[in-house]
Fold these 2 entries.
Entry 1:
Amino acid sequence: MTTRVTFGKSEFYWFLQHAVPLSVIMGTVSLLITVARSFLGVVSSRDASRGRKAAEVIQMGVVTLLAGSLFAMSLVNLTELDQETQNKLPLSVQELYHKYRPYHVTNSYGLFRSMTGVGGRPELVIEGSHNADSGWIEYDFKYKPGKLGARPPVVIPHQPRLDWQMWFAALGSYNYNPWIINLAYQLLQNNTEVISLLHHNPFPEKPPKFIRATKYRYHYTSIKDAGTHWWARDSAEEYFPPLALYQPTLKEFLSYHGYTVPLKESFEVTRLTSFLKLIRTLVDMVDPVAFIWTILIISFLPHFKALRFRVSLFGI
């Protein structure tokens, strides 16, 4: 089977100039219809008292305000596909987006120009050792390919940020991904918060003296050659050389890219932060894949009950 592109750059931009404004209009109309239906449902309810209706109207107003703000901010990201449409957005919408941009409330859309992984999926393997010449042990991540015998987990709709960023880092160099050097710096100190993002810490008692990263090309094994392995890897190349805490160049690199050395807490410890840490500790006690699938199954249970009720109602 062969394919070919039958349109040029000018036709593609013409399509965006018409499709992006249309998508903005459709999204706005859809949001307004949803809000109107929700308000009508609250107001027209005969069973609720006036006080309850008033409370539900106030609640709907707050939710509508938040939903409208998120939708408005997301329009700035969406219209990056067409600069002319973005320039037509109200100034108040753009100011709102830039005000909350540091919190990453909304994110831009993007497309891959070409599929990565053709010829092998690029992956980074981080290793630690107490000796720069031997004794290297791999760090095991929760989701990304690493150990050849690890079965690929199904994590949709979860998007594990560290594992996802590790894949992006493998597409370039550490100079364009300085955060990965900071990751190595934290592993050299057995930082508990960083270690909690990994599946297993091979140095639980004493942190390694050296950390290095190697880039591989991962391939699925065939049924014939699989055995106990899901993956095969080749084309090993150095991603960054062995790093140690005593190296002045390591701290200079981190300071140059804006990372504080040593790492300092950038937030005040409050009841909320303590509560969030407790929730994270409890969640980390459960297998990540099992936790995600449990949430999915629980969320679909009401739909299954409704389906069973309809089946019994019609005597099917």
Note: The two ends are 45 Å apart (CA to CA).
Entry 2:
Amino acid sequence: MLSDEEEDEEVSSEEMVSSDHGEEELNCPNQSEFKVHHRSRDVPQQSDEIQHPFNHHPNPPCLPNDLECEAKHEDNGGSLEKRDLARLQYQTNNDLKNGGGTMNHDPSPSTALAACLKKPENHPDKLKSILIKRRGNKSNKNVSFRNILADFVEPVPVNHVNDEECANVLDSYKELCEKLRVRPCQKLVDQLEGLQDSTLKLDTIDLKGTRLDPSHCEALEAVLRVLRAQTLNIEQTQLDDDGAISVFEMIEYYEPITRLIVANNVRLGVRAWLALARLLKRFHRLEYLDVRRTSLDESTMPLLCRVLKLNCTLRVLHLEDNHLSGILTRNLVWGLRTNTLLQDLYLGHNKLTPEDAKLLGSLLVTNRTIRLLDLRNNRLQDTGILFLSSALEEQHAGLQLITVWCNQITANSMSALARALAFHTTLEGVN
């Protein structure tokens, strides 16, 4: 049993302890911070090892590369922010683990940085120089791009070509082939070697049967910009869209020819026909066009017919062996109905039927400028000849020669054809 004085002392001591706890709770608004504060007192300080909250984390988070070497040097005190300092400490620890971190006479940037990070406030200038050095190592990686326009030559109109370029057209062609890394066309080289420098004119630039890829077509610019010729023959050269576009644009710009042969090139697509239509519309010296067997179809035939309707300067048009029966013949008739310049039209080997002959007959009634109509090797039959004979009787004048052999014709249609010859005033022959 305690005496009354001892009981009073015990109660007073309990009140003092409770009052002490109350003061601490009032001074710490967050109970968890209070506990962390007391727990951190029990952990011994390790001065020899760099402390970082990520050091003992089982899976430390990845840090962005763009923030790995950024140190914010403030104007007032020049101190590093805590967040950047933590990032630098974390990355430096990784560098030391991967590559070793012993100090020597020539310390690596990671080792030197680790030494500065122990007491960053004592080494602000040295820390900044190390960071600049680390950034400089990355800035030494330069990226360079090849100048793809270095060998580009601005096209020069033929009126501005000097005499020296005219005399060395063969050398210019070989030099351009060397730049484009293609072999010069031997057939063209032979023609240029026999060329007289005084005239610089050829009757025909003949490349028939020579394979022309886009690079070979680009090399032709050295010749077409200087040389004048009557005809450019690129028949059966395996032209594709890119090569054909290059050739057509050169002809449009330099105007070196008046006759163009593009026959037997079945790889021409819509892009090539668009370029050809643009050439026919803008180039007013082209009079002859041969597009035999050139993949004309329902998507490309309207491109040609629209230009014909605009009354381009063509006088002769070869369309043989393009399978123009049906809708393609209808498009052609629509394009030529108002054309007043075309004189010779070749439509042989197109499998034309009597219905196609009826459409061509309607064309002859309205178009009186066509002098020659070649319809050989088709399927007109007697019915088709009757349609054409009736159209010739109605035309009276205009057509001079019509060719209709190999069309499955018999004697039944000859009387109607003879009557058309009697009524027509300008028709000179029927083959």
Note: Residues 291 and 411 are 34 Å apart (CA to CA).
